[in-house]
Structure formats: structure tokens, C-alpha cells
Known about the structure:
Structural class: alpha/beta
Bound molecules: flavin mononucleotide
Strand order of the largest sheet: 2-1-3-6-7
CATH class of the largest domain: Alpha Beta
Distance between the termini: 27 Å
CATH architecture of the largest domain: 3-Layer(aba) Sandwich
Low-confidence stretches: none
Amino acid sequence: MKKILVIYYTQSGQIKDIINSVLKDAKTDKNVQIDYYKIEPEEDYPFPWRPSSKFYDVFPESVKSIDCKLKALIVNNSYEYDLVILGLQVWYLSPSIPISSFLKSDEAKNILKGKPVITVYGTRNMWVSANKTVKNLIKNTGGHIIGNIVFSDKHHNLISVITIVRWLINRKKEASKYFPEAGVSTNDIVSASKFGNPILYSLTNKNFDNLQNELLKLNAVQIDYHIMKTELTGIRIFHIWASIILKNSQPNSKKRKRLLKLFSYYLFFVIYAVSPVASLIFRSKKLIFPKKAKKETEKLTSL
Ligand SMILES: Cc1cc2nc3c(=O)[nH]c(=O)nc-3n(C[C@H](O)[C@H](O)[C@H](O)COP(=O)(O)O)c2cc1C
């Protein structure tokens, strides 16, 4: 009997649907046991994010990985698990606060130490810098990342911003007359079952050495060079904003609200005025230096 432990946080249920699809075949395999544990903040974040100011209020703490209090996550006999799957999402180019809080906890160290871990992301389209943080956090627990699968919204960046806001603030994920479905598409969620085979094979053979290569052959990680470069520039500026807000205002204060409002205008301006230009520059860079761009992208698909 092989045992898989799934640990996840989700607001909409999207990442759980994705993992259920990845483990579709494993679920019907009599030799595999799967246990799910949800990370739960003591005071959960609102979904939908109303009033919308709450959506911006988590910005500084997300970027600076400042913990929230979590309910105890008690996994009995965690040493018995052969594989851990971590289902996560990105908030402001960083791991979501519940995920980073969990990864820094003693419970995470107890559960993940010495264990093979597969990270499964459900994001809009900017996850690369969050993944750098997650890799370090998992390394600090003593866990070993042996696989990474990323699900994102494949629509144009500017379209996916509109649809994700509609989803996160108005709870409308489905397509409308003018806009496509928000987040990871239903098709991609259903076809996530294709990743189950290589995972089951590695699990049964107790050898995860080649798993990521097999997952990559199935397009487990797809990186758009111009999105990745825009994001990596963005996270540096996010750190400056987050430091300014944290240094100059108290939680719930009027000053913090004013600073966050200013940040929300900045974000809107960057997304719609700066990012198209940046995207054009990075696309040209890729055309002029294709080898360099390929190398940079490949580096980020490795574990
Ligand atoms: C506050 C907040 C910030 C987000 N920032 C990003 C981001 O920087 N990059 C990204 O790809 N997705 C971002 N998302 C989308 C999430 O990664 C995720 O896809 C979505 O919230 C659904 O996750 P769920 O499983 O918790 O429902 C953000 C979502 C929230 C709520």
C-alpha cells in the first residue's frame, strides 16, 4: 500500500479540483491511499474578496511572507506517507499567506522532513517568483521537491486580469458574453489527469529521479518569457511598496488604507500602461537573444 498525503489551501476550491483530477487514477487504485488535509487560517480570508479593499490589504504581508495564525494541522503518523502533494496559489507574486505560514510552521517541518514533495500551483499566470520562495521554504523543512506542476490561465495577460477580478471579487468564474472563463480552464483541470500516470509509476517504483522530466514532457510547466521577465521586475518593486506600507502605517489605520489605495492605482497603471510596453521589450529581447532566453526559461522549469 502506498500512501499519498495532500496538503492544500484554497478559497474557491480550484486547486482541490486540480489535485483531484491529477489523482483520478490513483483514487481507483486499491494499492493507493490518499488523505487530504486543508490548511486553515484561524481567521480565514474572505471569498469573494468584499469589500475589495480587503484584496489589497493582504499585499504587504503576502510579499514579505508575514505569517497568519493557522489552526493546528494534525496529521497522524505522517512518517507513513510515501509522497506529499502540496496544492498552492500565488498572492501578489508570492506564495499565499496561508501557504507560507504553513511552510514555516513546526508542523510542516514534522510532516515534510525527508519526504518527497510535489508542488501543484493553481495561478493566474505569474508564479515564478513565488516558486523561488516556496522552494526555499520547503528546503528549510527538510522536504525534497521531486515534481512541480503549474496550472495557469492561458488567456492574454490583460484579459486574465479582468476575468480574475470578476471571479475573486464577484465570484463569477464562468465565461460571460464578452469574457472567457477566469482562472485555470475547465479543460485544463479535466486533462490534469494525464499527470497521474508518471506520478503513480514513480510512487510504485519508489524512484522519483526521472519524474520531473516525465511531467515536463506533458507540459507540466510552461513559461512565457515576457510574462516571466515582467514578473521578476515587478516583484522587486512590490518589495519596495510593501516595505513603505509596513514601515509607515499600522494595521487597519487610515494611513495604511490611504497607502493601499495609492498602491491599487499604481497596480492598475502598471498592468495597463507599463506591462504592455515591457512585454513588447521582452518579446523583442527573446527574438534577438533566443539562446539566452531559452536558457533563462529552462532554469526556471527545473526543480
Ligand atoms: C490577493 C490575491 C493575489 C493574487 N495574486 C496573483 C499573482 O500575483 N499571480 C498569479 O498568477 N495569481 C494571483 N492570484 C490568483 C491566485 O493565485 C489563485 O489562482 C486564485 O486566487 C484561486 O485560488 P484558490 O485555489 O485559493 O481559489 C491572486 C489571488 C489573490 C486572492
